[in-house]
Amino acid sequence: MRTVRLTKESTKDILENLLKRSPNNYGKFEAAVADILANVKEKGDEALFSYTKEFDKVEVTPETIRVTEAEIEEAYKAVDASLLEVIRKALVNIRSYHEKQRQNSWFTSTENGTMLGQKVTPLNRVGVYVPGGKAVYPSSVLMNIVPAKVAGVPHIVMTTPPGKDGKVNPSTLVAAKEAGADEIYKVGGAQAIGALAYGTASIPKVDKIVGPGNIFVALAKKAVYGHVSIDSIAGPSEILVLADETANAHYVAADLLSQAEHDEMASAILITTSTELAQNVEKEIEGYLKVLSRKEIIEKSLENFGYILIAEDMDEAIEAGARFIVSPGFDPEIVDYCIEKQIPVFPGCVTASELAQAVKRGLEVVKFFPAETSGGLAAIKALAAPYVGMKFMPTGGINPGNVRTYLESDVILACGGSWM
Prior knowledge:
alpha/beta
């Protein structure tokens, strides 16, 4: 992880480096993804089973591709009771938040008899993609399925890659069952996106596909857009932490690693006014790397796209943070403020002009909890914990964790009176 003095030049260089990770810059993979999608569209299950055997080293059949109730029961027996408790607490918090996003149809009429309105209808069938190759993230399951359930989607189809034993990770299955998935299929990658977009004999076609994934999943979603709706074309995982000398280096390091562990192209950036904190965070990261199972992935991520930026003062740090947030090369899922002084982003505070653009994009509040970088367990604990700090997820209105993602809206115009 490189420590750099914050300047306009260093910021510009970093943003240019981060832009290289955009899905739009991976044309060399597009041909392979196009071939996979074309085969799934033409051959259906045959192609789906073949790719699962090739990429996941698992043989699936029409009888085994769908997760059974027996497998779900087995997963419950394998999951620790404390994790199940945390999942259920997180569900309450997530559901409570998204229930406030519900939208209702409305109708009105004018004096001349014209009726105006908006009919809001939940999508009929949604496909939720859950990564499962390099790590397991039950939190991703909860944050995609719960808002769909709140929106009223009647059919939720989930796909996730199987392990080499042909099974789905127990914590993923338990999270899916608790959240309300109707069908779960053991298939991942671009082939899963193709199955959800076009439909096969085993997997039904959906109206919309949501959820994160690797570069092949991102490019597949981009390619099928038009055949089916999608939430967004997600790039690699990213986190931005703004911190002063009062921040806890142990927690800051853990939060940075909670995103860096996702894949080699993830980016973790700390902007701080304290050289001492920067040094302590580096030491904490070194300590974590001695015990974390995903050490190699984290090291590559931090080596290529991890930065600690030293700012002269907090105004400079906030200005740089705002620039990173609105940059096309860096779109962080999480923005942490580990600062003693009140940060001017909530209503009732004086909004910092440097953050105005970021605020306009939408900041979805989630709970703050010191991350533990344990394959998604930290994220679930974050959603289950009470508020003890500030953490934001820039959503721009298209994040899968948003009820609007799962609704259709039709304008109603019935002309009458002098219009007739």
